[in-house]
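Tokens help. One example:
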Amino acid sequence: MSALRGLRPELQDTCISLGLMLSVVLLVGLARVVAQQQLHRPVAHAFVLEFLATFQLCCCTHELQLLSEQHSAHPTWTLTLVYFFSLVHGLTLVGTFSNPCGVMMQMMLGGLSPETGAVRLLAQLVSALCSRYCTGALWSLGLTHYHVSERSFACKNPIQVDLSKAVITEAVCSFLFHSALLHFQEVRAKLRIHLLAALITFLVYAGLSFPPNTWHF
């Protein structure tokens, strides 16, 4: 922390947030290694890996949302972080879905049995709840000026445009992303991860205008 004292306060806060996200990635990576070595039952193995992957993704998403609000006047920086962490998640969370839509799509295609799919969906739900409380506890420490315990996770309506525009935007973005997942299956893994990260960044950029100057994950 002493190395950050010479930086401007807003830059210090950004570095701390990035450090927290990278720490989560490293801890989850260590836990994945331990799980792969110690867990030999397929069901338990699938549950734990899906739990860890979703936990990493949710924690980073909460923190990225904070950063996007602090740097709302600089969307290029926000998009850079989206691409970087999409790439990090793609490289570190191989073999997991971290998304209920991905699980259900594989179940419908016959790639997952209903039992395995149900286990993965349960792991995602439990992990999302855990990440919410863990992130809240972390913010209560006040490590940055926008980490405050009063910050609410309460559900609220994020749609600030016409419902028809919101539905069309969401439908088009979801269709493009899941279509890309299907068509990129034959692409080499390293290249596929870069392509998906670039696509996610493009979709976030495309959604920036609905409504302008706001951004929701």
Notes: DSSP finds seven helices and no strands in the chain. The radius of gyration is 18 Å. Confidence is low (pLDDT under 50) at residues 211-217. The chain has one domain: 2-156.
